Each structure stands twice: as C-alpha cells, then as structure tokens.
C-alpha cells in the first residue's frame, strides 16, 4: 500500500516536470519569494498577481490556484474570492492555506468565506488552523500551531482531517511532526521532515506551493497533497543532514537546493508514507 | 560596568529562548522575510499582519510590536497607529524604526505622528534618521545615513540619543560604526559589527526585529536595545570572518546562521559594550 | 568594435562605484529583496517607495527610476505614472520592466499607459513581452517567455528591438539566450548567461535593477543596458560554474555574490558582446 502511493507520487512528480504547470498565487508578502522559487525548483512556473482587475485573467491561463492568507487585506481577500470562483468555473484546482486561522476575527471570517464560496481541491494547514476550521477548541500561536494543539494526538488529527475532507469535499492536509492527508475515504500518514523546518519562516507556505504545483499536473489531489508534503519533508531532511549545523540561513538555502534536485530515486529511498 | 551589561544581555537572551515571544510586525515588503527569519533565529516567533481590521487583535496576542515605515502607505500607516495605540493600552512594548525619515514629507509626517500618538519603548534609526527626529540638520541618502551625518561625531550622537530618550520617554538607539543606546540616564556604546553589513539590505530592519524580540522577553528596554544591536553586530562580525570574501549573498545567509547559533558564551567572548 | 563596448561598460561600471547612485524602485513584492541586494552589490543604493504621496519626492532625490509591473495594482500603477512623469521633468532616467505584458488586459493597458506617458531611457523585457509591445503575435506564459516566442529567431529579435527603440526613443533590450540591445542605430548582441538562471525567480527583475544602477551613473543608456545585462549574465555564468550542481538555492545566493565581486578584469575576461 505504501509502495502504491510512492509510485503514484513519483508519477505525479514526473508530470510536474513534463507539464511545467503555471501556478497562480495570491499570497503573502513575507514568504512570496520562497514560494516562487520552490515552485520553479519543483519544475512548475509561478505567477503572482493579486489585483482584482486581473486575477480572473491570470487564473484562466493557469493550471492551479494557490490562496494563502498570511498577510491578507481587504483588497487581496476580494481578489482571492474572485480568482477562486473563476477557478471553480474553469475546473482549475484551488489550494488554500488558511495561515493564522484562529488568530483574528479577520482571518476567521476570511477562512469561512473562502470555504463557503470556493470549492477547494486541497486545504493545508497546521493543527491549530485545521482545528479552528473543524470548530474545535484551538489555541493558535499567531501563525504557528500551539503546543496544546500539536499534542492533541494523531488519532484525533486523522479524525479531524477525514471530517473536514468530507465536509468540504476536498483533500484536507494537516502538517506537523507526522503529516496527515485525507480525502475522506483514505487517510495517509507521512513521516518525513525535521523539527528544524520550524526555524524557517514559510515552510508551510512553500509546502502549499508544492501541493499547488502537483495539483497543476495531476487530477488525483490526494496524491498531489501527499507529493507536495513529501517533497517538503524530504527536502528538509536532506538539507538538515547537509547543513543543519551551520544554521537556519544555510538550511533555508539548502531546502530550495534539495527541491531542485528531487528525483524519483530520492522518493523511493526516503519517502515514508502509509495509510492510517 | 561593561560586564554588568553583558550579563544582563545574556540573561535577556535566555529569556527570549524561554519565552519565545510572539512579535507582531507591521513592516516593509523589502526585508520582511529577513525580519521574520531573524526573529525565529533569535528564538522568538514573528507574525506579520497589517490590515486595520486585525492589527489590534494581533497586537493583543503578541508580546511586542515592531513598526517599520520602510515602504509605508496610507493603509499601513493607519494600521501602525491603531496597533501602536492598542499596544500602549495593553502595556505591550513598541519598537519603531523610522526608515528614511528625512527623505520625504510623508516619512517625516508619519514619523511625527507615530512619535506623537504612540508611547515607544525603543526607537532605533541611523544617524540621519535620528538627527531628523531631533530637529537637527540631516542629509539622508534615501534609507541610508549620509556621510556628513555619520561624521557628525560620537559626542554629538550621545547627546542626541540622550535628548531624544528624555523627550520621548523611550530608549533611543542610533546604529552605525559605533552604536549608541540611551535611556536618558545611561548611554551605552557598542562596538561590534562590520562595514560589510551596509552591503546587505535590511540589516537595520533585522536589528529592529531583534530588539523587538528582546522587548518581548524583558522589561529592561535599555538591555533589550543593547541585546538586539549586539546580536546583529556580533552576527555580522562572525559572518564576515567566515564568508566575507565570498560576497554579499553568502554574508546575508551567514548572518542568519550566526544569529541562530548565538549563545551566552559568544556574548561573553565578543560583546564590546561600555558606558559613554 | 567588441572591445570598444567592453571598455565603455567597464568605465560605466567604475562610475557606478564612484557615484553610488540612489535608484528609486517601484517594483513587485516577489523579487524586491533581490532587487535591493543586487543594487547594493553593484555599488549603487536602492530605495523602494510606492505611495503616491511620496514617489515624486523620492524620485527627485534619486539618480534613476526603475518601474516594474510584476505585481502591479491600482495604487502602484498611479504611483509609477506620477514618478515617471516627475523623472521626465527632472531628466532622471527611467527604466521599465513590463513583467507579464501580454498575460492580462491590466498588464497590457498599464504597459501602454507607461509607454505613452513616460519617456523611457531603457525598456527591458523577455521576447514575449517585447513582442507584445511591438504589436506582434505573442504567447506569453505568465511572466516567462513562451517557447514559440523564444524560437522566433535572432534576426527577428534584432529587428523588433530596433523598431521599438526608434518608436519610443529609448534603448530596447530583449533578454534571453542571446540578449539583444538596441538604441535604434546600433544593435548589440550579448552572449553571457546560463540556462540555469531561468530556475530562479527575479533574474529578469534583478537585471533591470542593474540597468537602473548603470543609468544612474552614465548618460549612455545603450552602454548602461549592455552593462546591466552583462553583469547579470556573467554573474550567472560564474555562479553556475561554482555551485550550479548544488541546486537553485545555492545558485541564487552565488549570483548576488558574483555581482558583489564584479570588477573590470572580469568584464575583460568574460564579456561576450558584438554588434549585430
């Protein structure tokens, strides 16, 4: 079973390289450069555009849309909704990263609006964000998951991701020490990564961009979510082995390196994925 | 006396690591990624949020607020004022970086507004920016200090920082070849750093984020300002020794590395701090 | 002839280092940090400012203005037009990077507005963007040139750049595998660079910032455009030789390193430039 998913991810990865999908991002200004570079590193092509007067046009020429509310504002929220609705009309996959959901009413309301008005292909967040979306008690620490939420347990996480996946008809991914991905029918556990990733801003955002890149190349969104998360986790591991002791600046650079060097053999060798 | 301050800084540094304070930034889009990464590197947690509808909520859950007008606009200036006033109500420390004060009427007026409406804990700028705030002749070169201002002398600088500290009831820090930090009673001179830092954008902004991280963990803002500036200076020195000859891209990365590797021993070994 | 241009570029390069021109950027939030750092690396000084209430003031103290529509919006487009018109009044050179022209009506209309209202010194784009401006069939792929446009041929490219240069009274530069620079009278071909540059976001934007830096130091805009493009191409080559196998994160860092290490000898040794 494990091998089945690794083979599917490898195939999807090859399709990213072959198709080089254009991935439209409406995202935050903190990690946007890393999102663009990691999209290129995986073999896709990024375009960032957030003016309401062009987002529908840009989405229309793209193969996937990534929405990320890391530094949302009134102008960009309207653009996200317009782009999301356009993507739905054209059956272009939409990936949503509810950064900081739970941390402010604005983020909560915007998350609800996007979930209500846009049919997502993949929703990816940390445990606090996804617990908020599930209507559970969540104690976010800004844009990071709180320790209490992280320790709420794997079984609970699987249950939450399944419930969310069914409720919103999308793949729901919770990233953390063990990543959980569910389409409501199948729930996968992914165990790559390193704690050092939390010392660099934007590893969640970059993961979402990688998922968006996969979604631009395959219609199997469970595999796309697993593929993006595996890429990020494996890249983090490889980077940590190589330069983890040098510090977080070196690790940051090495993560992009590792994604740009990713290949099928590395997936075979490193990927840790199994059904829950 | 020197040893007293180093010990205080070391203690504050340990408190940053223990408390991991959330530091709310309303800052510019040029150096924001570096500000987030250096905040993580020192052991704190960054959150960037600038929409007027959420800044008060985000400030409320934070341990410090950093205001930086590097790429100010009408929308973000209003957000800065609202967040600053909220921070004051909740007694959350506010650190202000008046980037480019003196370079345009907008920056001048905004700087004045923030100084008037928000009680600061620390004000950090280069010699041109602080001279402008002091009402002295200042000839800024965009966002960098002019040579004339830099050469206006250390004694004058000490006097200015003391005057500003007393006038605004905050710690006033002027960073340059010798950094000057004053709370109006005590004035400290810090001599770490390297000229190579001026070849990388955002070293001033990053320094301000480090000060914000310290302010989130200690109420001794003189020590917090000294701690943040020492971290940046020592990190710059260490990075320059290691990769200074490779070029400014490598130095940029190595500065983040050095901050993420900072520890009490390094402060003891390297910190150059004494009262004026 | 080749030697003549290399000598002129070397002289202009020295002038950048001597004059350290302030270069006002109104640019996108994706690659802005790299634009600032590469401007510093070449020896100039960047300032990013986009609020309509200050752009004229900032342009007035600058030696060159760079306009880049990578993430344009209503607010920044107005700022670009105001800054451009101010620059024209003060005879400050303006460099324009029409990122993604052809990809949306907003980008097309904005490009036309800037071309109509602002007298440019240099226009730099990829083959799809410049073909769009020339009114030719263009099939942009987001912010990257399409394969069809890239393969439209060198002779056609020379003809297009000459025509555009004459029509808009500026230097027109098309960057790609072979870069083409024309002032309508002389057309130069530049052959430095590496395909690996396309794996990093913002190499086009950085190239435009380098051109802006040169324009702030010399009035010979043909030489300025050639100089900026040569710097970027040579830096890319040197970086690829050094760390190309490590991955795109390392290459990114090494490009900035190479620009910060650029000198006259390296131009003599590496520059490949000749008249068409």
TrEMBL record, chains A, B, C:
EC code: 2.7.1.50
Record GO biological process: thiamine biosynthetic process; thiamine diphosphate biosynthetic process
GO molecular function terms noted in the UniProt entry: ATP binding; hydroxyethylthiazole kinase activity; magnesium ion binding
InterPro entries recorded: Hyethyz_kinase, Ribokinase-like
Reactions mediated catalytically: 5-(2-hydroxyethyl)-4-methylthiazole + ATP = 4-methyl-5-(2-phosphooxyethyl)-thiazole + ADP + H(+)
Alphabetically ordered keywords of this record: ATP-binding, Kinase, Magnesium, Metal-binding, Nucleotide-binding, Thiamine biosynthesis, Transferase
SUPFAM superfamilies (alphabetical): Ribokinase-like
Pathway as given in its UniProt record: Cofactor biosynthesis; thiamine diphosphate biosynthesis; 4-methyl-5-(2-phosphoethyl)-thiazole from 5-(2-hydroxyethyl)-4-methylthiazole: step 1/1
Protein residues bound to substrate: 48, 202
Signal sequence range: none
Cofactor(s) listed: Mg(2+)
Sites where the protein binds ATP: 124, 175
A Pfam entry, by short name: HK
Entry keyword annotation includes Cytoplasm: no
Family, as annotated: Belongs to the Thz kinase family.
Functional note: Catalyzes the phosphorylation of the hydroxyl group of 4-methyl-5-beta-hydroxyethylthiazole (THZ).
Name the UniProt record assigns to this protein: Hydroxyethylthiazole kinase
Biological source species: Tepidanaerobacter syntrophicus
